[in-house]
Structure formats: C-alpha cells, structure tokens
C-alpha cells in the first residue's frame, strides 16, 4: 500500500502569530508527553522532531487543479485571468498560504542552524527547498515580493519589509536550493518509508525551472540578467540528466505517456516530486472533477500536435486528414494527442460524474461540450474507483499528481541551451527532446529537418514543451515568460469544426445554438472578446488588504503596475 506522510497542519498569516506550528506523527514515544506540554524547549531535540515539523510543509503541495484554463489550451468556463477581466481582490489564498508555509520553514531553519547532526541537516534542507518552493509560487504571479527569512513576532519591524526586486527574489530562491541540495539524499537512496520526500534531484530540478523562467522573462524584456539564469538552468538540468537517477517512464509500452499520469506511473523513475495520494486516507477525485467542470482541451492545443512524420498540420507535405469526419483530425498524428484527448467513438469503460456509464461518445454523449474536445489525460480506469457507486467521493482515486517530472527537465535543458546560444546541436536535441519523441515513436527533431521544411527551431521547442506538458499547469507561465501572452490570450477560444463536418449532424452541435457560435471557417467559438493589457496583465495584483496594512502603519507595499 502506498505510504502517505501524515501530519497535522496549522498556519496563519505571518504577522498574526508568535508561535510556530508543531506537527505530530504516528510515533508511540510522543504519546508519553502531553501535547499541551510540547514547547520549543521540549521539542527541537532530535532528527525525528525536525522530520515531524518538516512534514507540515508537504501539505501545501499542489493538488489536482485546472490551472491551464488560465491559458489558451484548456477551457471550462470564462476565466478572469485568461480573458483579461481579473480584478484586484482583498485577499489571496496563494499569498496567505505561501507566507504561512514560509514561516514554518523559517522556524525549522532557525532551530537547526549550526547543527552537525546529519538527520537534522537533512530536514533543514527540506525546509530550504520548501521556502524556495513557496517563494517561487509568489514570484511567478507577483514578481518580486517581501523576503522574510526569520520567524517574526507582531512587533518586529520586518513585518513591513518592502518588496524585493524580482532578481533578488529569484536569487534567494536559487541560493536556498543550492544549499538544500548539499544535504538532501539522492532519490535512488530513499528507503521505502521516505519515498516521496524531497531529494537532491528535486532541488536541482526546481532550480532549473526557476532559472529558465527568470532567464527567459529577462531575455524577452531586454533585461541584463538573462544569460546568468540561462546558464544556471543548463547547469542544474544537466546535473539531473547526467546523474543517472531518473529516466522516462516506459512501463506501459506504446501507451506509457498515458499511463504515466495514472496508477501505473506512480513512483516511477520519471517522478521527481509528486503530490501523493492513497485511497481512503488522502485520496482525490480529479477524474470526477474534470468531468463535471468540463475541463477540456481547445483547438489551439489540438492543432499543435504534429503529424506522424513530424510536420505541423499546416506545413507543405503534411499527411493531416482534415476535419470532415469525427475522427479524421486524430488520424496519423503525434500519439500524445490521443492520449490527451479522447477519439470520438471510443468506448471508455469508465463511470463519470454523476455515476453514469459512458458508452460510445459522441453517439451517447455524457460530458461537457464547451469545446467539443474531451480530456482523456488523468481519466483513470481503476475499477474500484469507477464502479464504487460512491458519488463524488473525494477519496476514491489514488494516482499521484506529478509536480516535477524528468520530462520537464529535458525540456528545460533544450530550451535553455537554445535561448542562451541561439542554436542547439543535434547532440543536445538527442539528449533532451528526442528522448520524449522516442517514447511515443515520433521522428527526431533535427536541425536538418527544421531547415529542410522551413520550420523555426524556437517554435518547435515550444511546441514540444506544450504538447508534452499539456494540462499540467505550465502554459500560463510559459506564454508570460515568452512575452507572447499579449498575442495568444487575445485570440478567441475555439473548439471543433462543426460546419461542413459530421459534427453538424449530431446533437448537441446540430442545435442552432451551436451552429450560431462558429467562426467564418466553421470552428466552434467557446469564448470571444478576450482582453489582455500588456501594461499590467503579465503580473497579478497584490492583495489589497496587504497593501492597506502597510499603508495603515506608515509603510509602503508597492502594488504591481496598472493595478
């Protein structure tokens, strides 16, 4: 049975409490001490104490969500982030929870400062990783933020720490990760009870992610720090690749990409950091949630998949079959397409929310029709969960969410090399993205192929990243760091082609309501009149309550431009 670390969580806003959270675990020795008597003086003594405290930090790891609706490759209902209608709010869950966990991490780091105990140093390193993780969560949407590196009391002047620059914020994140990796074990050295804990590879991979993000953010805005961050991304990703600890999951043959995201892919060597689940202990209901909400791919994503020969579907010589039938656009495409979205007519052998067996879709549709493309990624075939009859039970499914996987590291390496040097060798392509193509039996990406077919290497590397990481929550960050959101997010969200195809004869798309929602070429428009203001929308507004708190005390917390 999969092991899940258990802990009790309590965290508050950084300026409202004095005392650190103390976590407890399933250790019979702790029962000898009344929980009411646990204090700083009696707790921080052993490696196990620090481990119990560090367990708290895992609780904030991302559960399954619908992050890509903030971009252009997924849709359920209009999203205020992606359509330009976001308004400043008084509070922010991301802000509050991140600083709460940062405070908990600071406590562990302070209590373990100067220790020579190897066990304690390991959990201090975990705390440094998580401090970096939660500051990364803030950096990606707000830019530079106040950097708090000590446990604060209500009277401390540091409660009103001004915002650091985004470079200073990035540098602190990378420093924490550099220090953490020195005291973290290799993932291959973790014993069974510790599988899922932070490893050296996780610190390196997060370092590569953050460095690529900031390096490209700076590059496409003409800033001076791009090269150093791209070098850091190359070095960190390269260390993971050359370490030999990780490899792509191939345990399900030609369907390995699909099953990586389901039960067979749990604890594979592709996983670097997961949010772990276990049925009836800490489970999840992602398949039900995605069904009910209509979390589905868009035409933008569908059209990104290459044909089987490695050509874009708009290129000369493509074998793309067009849109005339229900299944024609799925034929002879990159296999990841049909492992991400369902081919119409497929018998899914699943029970969706509400508990109703899905037959041959589209003949007997049971799902949300917002784009006409139906999500297949994450759709588990687990017979226990799917046939339980436990309507909407949030603990039924237990496949993990992969938060950092080896495939991302390969993509980071390729992109960072190209953006740093303006070119990438075939050897580096073979070391990185072509491993992903090998898994799905797609032709290699080479410089000769790009030149011979009048393609653009940057476009192809970005395409590879988007289709490999589709519906995993990366796209919103990617188009902002590339500074293409001002183009991509203005475009209508579109779905399947209805006019002139078989879809025009099938319910619900034969309904005049749908037929009136097509563009001049017959493609369903799921959302139009979208906005994006490049002067402000690349960053989100800080919570107004935080800004007002500073102001009320004669201090300044600078709001993001335009907000």
TrEMBL record:
Can you quote a single GO CC term?
A: cell outer membrane
Q: Please provide the record's keywords in A-Z order.
A: Cell outer membrane, Membrane, Signal
Q: Entry's Pfam families?
A: SusD-like_3, SusD_RagB
Q: Which domain of life does this protein belong to? A: Bacteria
Q: Which residues form the RagB/SusD domain?
A: 288-563
Q: Which Gene3D superfamilies match?
A: 1.25.40.390
Which segments constitute the SusD-like N-terminal domain? Answer: 93-212
Q: Where in the cell is it found?
A: Cell outer membrane
* Protein family membership: Belongs to the SusD family.
Q: What is this protein called?
A: Starch-binding associating with outer membrane
């Amino acid at each position: 049975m999969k092991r899940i670390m258990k802990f009790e969580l309590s965290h508050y806003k950084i300026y409202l409490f004095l005392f650190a959270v103390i976590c407890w675990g399933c250790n019979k020795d702790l029962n000898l001490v009344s929980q009411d008597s646990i204090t700083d003086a009696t707790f921080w003594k052993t490696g196990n104490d620090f481990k119990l405290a560090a367990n708290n930090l895992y609780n904030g790891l991302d559960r399954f969500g619908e992050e890509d609706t903030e971009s252009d490759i997924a849709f359920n209902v209009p999203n205020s982030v992606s359509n330009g209608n976001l308004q400043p709010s008084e509070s922010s869950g991301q802000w509050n929870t991140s600083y709460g966990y940062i405070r908990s991490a600071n406590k562990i780091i302070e209590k373990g400062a100067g220790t020579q105990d190897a066990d304690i140093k390991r959990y201090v390193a975990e705390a440094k990783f998580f401090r970096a993780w939660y500051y990364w969560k803030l950096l990606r949407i707000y830019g530079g933020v106040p950097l708090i590196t000590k446990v604060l009391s209500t009277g401390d002047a540091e409660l009103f720490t001004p915002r650091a620059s985004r470079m200073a914020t990035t540098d602190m994140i990378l420093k924490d990760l550099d220090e953490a990796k020195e005291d973290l074990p290799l993932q291959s050295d973790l014993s069974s009870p510790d599988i899922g804990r932070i490893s050296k590879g996780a610190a390196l991979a997060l370092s590569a992610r953050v460095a690529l993000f900031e390096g490209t953010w700076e590059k496409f805005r003409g800033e001076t720090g791009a090269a150093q961050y791209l070098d850091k991304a190359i070095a960190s990703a390269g260390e993971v690749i050359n370490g030999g600890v990780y490899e792509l999951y191939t345990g399900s043959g030609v369907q390995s990409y699909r099953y990586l995201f389901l039960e067979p892919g749990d604890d594979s060597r592709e996983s670097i950091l997961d949010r772990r689940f276990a049925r009836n202990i800490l489970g999840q209901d992602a398949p039900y949630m995605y069904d009910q909400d209509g979390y589905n791919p868009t035409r933008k994503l569908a059209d990104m998949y290459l044909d089987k020969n490695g050509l874009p579907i708009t290129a000369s010589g493509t074998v793309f079959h067009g849109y005339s039938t229900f299944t024609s656009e799925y034929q002879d495409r990159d296999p990841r397409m049909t492992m991400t979205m369902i081919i119409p007519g497929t018998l899914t052998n699943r029970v969706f929310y509400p508990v109703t067996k899905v037959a041959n879709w589209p003949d007997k549709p049971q799902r949300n029709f917002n784009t006409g493309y139906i999500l297949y990624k994450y759709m588990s075939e687990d017979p226990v969960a799917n046939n339980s009859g436990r309507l909407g039970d949030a603990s039924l499914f237990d496949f993990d969410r992969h938060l950092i996987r080896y495939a991302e590291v390969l993509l980071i390496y390729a992109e960072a090399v190209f953006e740093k040097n303006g070119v990438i060798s075939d050897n580096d392509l073979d070391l990185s993205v072509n491993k992903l193509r090998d898994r799905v039996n797609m032709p290699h990406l080479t410089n000769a192929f790009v030149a011979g077919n009048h393609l653009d290497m940057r476009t192809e590397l970005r395409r590879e990243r988007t289709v490999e990481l589709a519906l995993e929550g990366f796209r919103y960050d990617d188009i902002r760091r590339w500074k293409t959101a001002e183009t991509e997010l203005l475009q209508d969200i579109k779905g399947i082609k209805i006019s002139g195809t078989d879809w025009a004869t099938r319910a619900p798309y034969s309904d005049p309501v749908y037929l009136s929602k097509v563009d001049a070429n017959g493609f369903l428009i799921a959302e139009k009149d979208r906005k994006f203001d490049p002067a402000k929308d690349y960053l989100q507004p800080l919570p107004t309550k935080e800004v007002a708190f500073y102001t009320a005390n004669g201090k300044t917390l600078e709001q993001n431009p335009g907000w």
